[in-house]
Each structure stands twice: as structure tokens, then as C-alpha cells.
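Researcher: I'm preparing a figure for a lab meeting and need a structural model of a single chain. I don't have an experimental structure, so a prediction will have to do for now. The sequence is pasted below. Please return the structure as C-alpha cells so I can convert it later.
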Amino acid sequence: VGFSFMSTKTWNGVSFPISINQLISFQNHHIELGIGAAPNYVVGEYFTGWDDIYSARIGYRYQKPNRKFIFRVGAVPIFSFPGFGVWGAVNFGYGF
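Model: Understood. Here is the structure written out cell by cell.
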């Protein structure tokens, strides 16, 4: 669950993303799966009102048990009627 404020030259909006995620582990290797929705309220030049964005997530995570280093790569398909797009990510991190 989260909150986000977005702004461009032609519109402003707030988003309330909610997602459910699952981590499937095989020792050092993990599969990340998830689904989510983000109700957005937009005030813009051409549109004002609620718009919903739906997403899924599939990814790979490398993290040894009881170790701090994390490597992740994933894809996030985004559905917003009538549009569709895919975001990608590569992450290096430190668990604490």
C-alpha cells in the first residue's frame, strides 16, 4: 500500500497503489510474482476524475539466505484502459 503525487505541465494527480506479492524460493534463487491496482485521481487539461491502473509483476531475485546482497530483475505489465505498456527494472540492493 502506498501514496504517490505526480505532476507534469498538463496534469497533476495522486495515486494509491495496492499490491499483493509472492516470493517463491529455491535456496539462493527466487521468483517474484505480484498483482496490483492503483486508483488515481487526476486533474488535467483534458481530463479530470478517477482513472485506474492495473499491474502484474514477474521477476527474478538472487539473494543467499542470511546474506545482505540482493540482485533483482523484473518486468511489470501495466494495464490502463485502453492502454498497455511494460516497465522493466534491474536492481542491486542491500537487505537489512
